[in-house]
């Protein structure tokens, strides 16, 4: 046999293995979902899994909900291509959890029931505030959903080795991406409408276990090659990257000396650290445990799991730079998204070896599981908000029975899933990291000010809440439209036109203060104030009295 | 949350009971204990994080200094962000277990009529 036929044979083995492992994961999660659906009886089962999860289980589920493909593939890829600057992302994503732990998780658990809107509308006029909460929940979740699904499409095409102009099972590369998006969409809808929060949570727990196992195994393999010496790993990565010491210093991606890129770095840093505690799909996870103390414990578990994971991605990213090489990674995917799978192939024995094919297939299915667990959480958060905030409290003004509310939630999951599928098919060329950063910026600008004012500011009122949400969200979206990400740069969405005047890629540094400012302004310009309700919120949020 | 969402069979405190509890010195003490930890801790970790981001943007010469082999200041600074995050989470857990939970569960039982 010549080299070409060996390569073709191993390519076929790899595809079969990869598809086989995907199928196993799908079968296992569908079984879990069916099992969960037998336990589900009430509306609470659908929205919060009956509040019956332990702190450890919820800690893993939070990890599974949070560590997206952008974290696993994206951060490892950025580190592999740009070295140190990728580390900045993981630090922002981790430190952000202290905002959730100290200021949000327990208080939210005690005073809300099913959605972010429950807490925001606690002492306000229900309809305007719940409408705003619904709008921002859906906006943030859809951006995040599209990011994950677009990522899934390109990932599967790459992992199955379908290049441009090639065919697989009669599908071209573009068609294969679309088929993947539809399959991922159909699966996430199934998890949510059949399994509800209980099924979704178990999918996320399984995924977190798989992801930690995969990342730990790869890290051990990498560290063995460098005698467990981080300095020699970094040194080798710097040499192989062709950039030398600059690879280990901040600034390869951000800050070619230009002030704009440096301000952009700070803007991104702010959005990352303040966005997490405003992400609706993360917030609703705090409702799935019986008490505030469990919410606290579960965030602590999540911090441990997520922190360890980001430390592992350091080894993966630098390991990929050292062992695979930046050029080989860039040749496969200019964004670096395939650095982790390529590293797995190398660690298993290299391209063409059986070990390489097995390890690559395993890591590919871990990445696939990662995406599925995150999109299920996002679909659940947005459909819960449609049913509980918009349908039950805005349209029906609270006069609705639980069963029809859950029916609306299931219907909403189908509609949102379908919308996300269609948008993702049209958005195949958008940059995944940009969409995720945008979701974080919107969450930090619109949701976080409203949540913090709600919990800690006595005078805060209906107008303040709606101005904070619409103001923060509006400013963030407005600035992005006129930023170089949308037009006027070679990598922009619309690269052949230029209507950009806002110099930064991330709007956070302007839009986050704007959200806080509008929340303050709306509050002081309105006379509404309900001291008794604030007394009640304060007592309930701190003591847990009257909590559901 | 509207009052129609009370669970049957459990003592739901009235609005009056909440207002009285809010004025109770024991509750004021609980609120003070809570805020005395979380507000300074939030200011501290945000300042520490912003210092890291600002140095990464504007303090490149300092961040690039090698300390141990190929490990530079930026690397250790990043690792220290992990250490401080884990540390604050552990400290808060201890503080809440000792200083917050006993008080809050007493007040909750009293409000819900379970002594």
Automatic annotation (TrEMBL), chain B:
Regions that span the bilayer: 37-59, 71-92
Record keywords: Membrane, Transmembrane, Transmembrane helix
Coiled-coil region list: none
InterPro entries for the chain: DUF485
Protein name: Integral membrane protein
Organism this protein belongs to: uncultured Mycobacteriales bacterium
């Amino acid at each position: 046999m010549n080299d070409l036929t060996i390569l073709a044979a191993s390519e076929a083995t790899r595809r079969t293995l990869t598809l086989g492992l995907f199928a196993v994961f799908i079968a296992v999660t569908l079984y879990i979902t069916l099992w969960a659906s037998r336990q589900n009886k009430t509306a609470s089962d659908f929205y919060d899994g009956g509040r019956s999860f332990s702190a450890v289980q919820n800690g893993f589920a939070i990890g599974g909900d949070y560590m997206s493909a952008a974290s696993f593939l994206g951060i490892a890829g950025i580190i592999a291509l740009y070295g140190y600057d990728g580390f900045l992302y993981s630090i922002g994503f981790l430190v952000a959890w202290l905002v959730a732990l100290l200021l949000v998780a327990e208080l939210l658990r005690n005073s809300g029931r099913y959605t972010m809107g429950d807490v925001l509308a606690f002492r306000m006029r229900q309809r305007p505030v719940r409408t705003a909460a619904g709008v921002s929940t859906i906006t943030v979740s859809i951006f995040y959903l599209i990011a994950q699904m677009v990522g899934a499409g390109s990932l599967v095409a790459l992992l199955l080795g379908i290049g441009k102009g090639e065919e697989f099972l009669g599908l071209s590369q573009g068609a294969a991406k679309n088929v993947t998006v539809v399959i991922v969409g159909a699966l996430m809808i199934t998890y949510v409408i059949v399994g509800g929060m209980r099924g979704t949570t178990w999918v996320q727990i399984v995924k977190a276990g798989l992801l930690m196992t995969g990342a730990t195994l790869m890290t051990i393999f990498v560290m063995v090659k460098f005698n467990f010496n981080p300095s020699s790993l970094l040194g080798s990565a710097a040499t192989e990257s062709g950039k030398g010491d600059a690879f280990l210093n901040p600034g390869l991606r951000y800050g070619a000396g230009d002030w704009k890129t440096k301000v952009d770095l700070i803007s991104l840093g702010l959005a990352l650290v303040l966005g997490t505690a405003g992400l609706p799909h993360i917030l609703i996870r705090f409702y799935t445990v019986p008490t505030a103390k469990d919410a606290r414990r579960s965030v602590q578990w999540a911090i441990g799991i997520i922190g360890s994971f980001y430390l592992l991605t350091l080894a993966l990213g630098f390991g990929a730079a050292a062992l695979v090489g930046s050029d080989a990674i860039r040749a496969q995917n200019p964004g670096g998204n395939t650095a982790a799978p390529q590293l797995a192939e190398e660690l298993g024995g290299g391209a063409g070896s059986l070990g390489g094919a097995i390890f690559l297939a395993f890591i590919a299915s871990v990445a696939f599981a990662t995406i599925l667990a995150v999109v299920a959480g996002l679909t659940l958060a947005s459909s819960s908000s449609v049913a509980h905030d918009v349908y039950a409290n805005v349209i029906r003004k609270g006069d609705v029975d639980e069963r029809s509310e859950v029916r609306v939630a299931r219907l909403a999951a189908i509609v949102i899933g379908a919308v996300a599928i269609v948008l993702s098919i049209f958005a195949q060329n958008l940059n995944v990291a940009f969409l995720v950063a945008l979701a974080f910026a919107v969450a930090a600008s619109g949701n976080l000010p409203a949540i913090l004012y709600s919990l800690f500011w006595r005078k805060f009122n209906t107008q303040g809440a709606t101005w904070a949400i619409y103001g923060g969200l509006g400013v963030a979206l407005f600035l992005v439209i006129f930023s170089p990400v949308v037009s006027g740069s070679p990598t922009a969405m619309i690269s052949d036109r230029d209507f950009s005047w806002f110099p930064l890629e991330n709007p956070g540094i302007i839009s986050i203060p704007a959200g806080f400012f509008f929340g303050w302004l709306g509050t002081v310009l309105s006379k509404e104030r309900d001291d008794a309700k604030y007394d009640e919120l304060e007592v309930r949020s701190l003591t847990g009295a009257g909590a559901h | 949350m509207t009052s129609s969402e009370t669970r049957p069979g459990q003592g739901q405190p009235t609005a009056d009971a909440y207002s009285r509890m809010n004025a109770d010195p024991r509750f004021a003490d609980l609120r003070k204990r809570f805020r005395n930890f979380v507000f300074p801790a939030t200011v501290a970790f945000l300042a520490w994080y912003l210092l890291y981001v600002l140095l990464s943007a504007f303090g490149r010469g300092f961040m690039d200094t090698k300390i141990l082999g190929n490990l530079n200041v930026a690397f250790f600074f990043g690792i220290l962000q992990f250490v401080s995050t884990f540390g604050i989470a552990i400290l808060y857990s201890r503080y809440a277990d000792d200083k917050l939970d006993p008080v809050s569960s007493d007040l909750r039982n009293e409000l819900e009529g379970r002594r």
